[in-house]
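Running this now, will post back.
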Amino acid sequence: ITLQADGAISLGGLRTTNATAAAIAITSTSNGLVHVGNAHVDIDANALGSSVTISTALGVGDANPITSSIYELRVTNTTSGNVRLVESDAVRLHRMDQQGSGLIEVVASNGSVEILPGSGGVTSQGGSITLDASAGVADILVNDAIKSAGGLVNLFAGRHILFNASGDIESSGGDINLRADEVAGNNGGKITLADGTLVDAGN
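Update: finished.
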């Protein structure tokens, strides 16, 4: 499925069972991607191997988060506006590039959030970055860099936050908040950094 427009693209329910890297491509060259209703999940592309690519100028779910059930996600936002998604289960982030001043917020309501290795990671030019998998016994897996040019970086996990050696976090002056084992009860949650992992708040 390919959607392309110069103006805003409003979603009420987009679904595919395509299990390829080209499952869904959405491009708004001068505006953004907008959530308009709750009758359906905005983007449903959760087959094994399915990838969703979103390119916008003025945000993804800027005012109201895009609802999703996505296997793998790529997002580029070039000018302004927030990038906000609420995922119904687990999601794998291949690349999230916020080139405007807005924030990045990905909330997994029933699953883990994984930044894939060699993907380019999650970057923001000033807004905060929040990856939240705290609603259930779920993990955040950081296999590539998270970089914010001044905004907060928040990682909240119901169980573990796990970094490999390439999973650095850098924020040029913004605080970095890591919280594991957020779900009630003793889930054995921990924060584990591989040898060589860098966490730098720039202060």
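Residues 19 and 48 are 6 Å apart (CA to CA). More later if anyone needs it.
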